[in-house]
């Protein structure tokens, strides 16, 4: 393509160049780093999972491996979605609204924060460390939630990205 937009990997430099929002440009960099780190972590985890279960025949283990990949996609997709939405909007010349770029970058940063909150909720009891005094009540509350509640913050954050895109397009 003549415009420099070549799929997912080309969307990042393209969106960075086309956006006028400095906050969105920072999200392109941070989002790419976080998405890359999450992808590496899930990839390494999948390698360990396969290595630990390689001697066992298929069945439910094959399903758990596939589920692991699906969960990884559900974490990475919202990280890259703001960049893909903005790149697509600029490529199609549907508008040069810096407000759209700004709102999607804020939603993206909130999703990153929601991933962290979800991780804090799911920390096993034996690995919980005493939090700093300034955030102790919040962290203790998060530690006290059932681990399955750790899914809620990232789910809400991902839905927020989609809602912002739908409302401002």
From TrEMBL:
<protein>
    <recommendedName>
        <fullName>DUF8056 domain-containing protein</fullName>
    </recommendedName>
</protein>
<feature type="transmembrane region" description="Helical">
    <location>
        <begin position="27"/>
        <end position="54"/>
    </location>
</feature>
<feature type="transmembrane region" description="Helical">
    <location>
        <begin position="66"/>
        <end position="87"/>
    </location>
</feature>
<feature type="transmembrane region" description="Helical">
    <location>
        <begin position="99"/>
        <end position="123"/>
    </location>
</feature>
<feature type="transmembrane region" description="Helical">
    <location>
        <begin position="143"/>
        <end position="164"/>
    </location>
</feature>
<dbReference type="Pfam" id="PF26243">
    <property type="entry name" value="DUF8056"/>
</dbReference>
<dbReference type="InterPro" id="IPR058369">
    <property type="entry name" value="DUF8056"/>
</dbReference>
<keyword id="KW-1133">Transmembrane helix</keyword>
<keyword id="KW-0472">Membrane</keyword>
<feature type="domain" description="DUF8056">
    <location>
        <begin position="1"/>
        <end position="169"/>
    </location>
</feature>
<keyword id="KW-0812">Transmembrane</keyword>
């Amino acid at each position: 393509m003549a415009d420099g937009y070549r799929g997912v990997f080309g969307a990042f430099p393209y969106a960075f160049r086309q956006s006028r929002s400095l906050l969105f440009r920072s999200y392109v960099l941070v989002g790419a780093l976080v998405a890359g780190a999450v992808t590496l972590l899930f990839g390494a985890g999948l390698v360990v999972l396969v290595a630990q279960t390689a001697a066992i025949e298929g069945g439910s283990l094959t399903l758990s491996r596939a589920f692991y990949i699906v969960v990884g996609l559900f974490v990475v997709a919202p990280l890259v979605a703001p960049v893909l939405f903005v790149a697509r909007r600029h490529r199609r010349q549907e508008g040069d609204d810096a407000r759209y770029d700004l709102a999607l970058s804020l939603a993206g940063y909130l999703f990153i924060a929601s991933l962290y909150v979800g991780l804090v909720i799911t920390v096993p009891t034996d690995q919980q460390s005493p939090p700093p005094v300034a955030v102790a009540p919040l962290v203790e509350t998060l530690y006290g939630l059932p681990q399955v509640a750790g899914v809620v913050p990232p789910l809400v954050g991902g839905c927020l990205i989609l809602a912002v895109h739908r409302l401002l397009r």
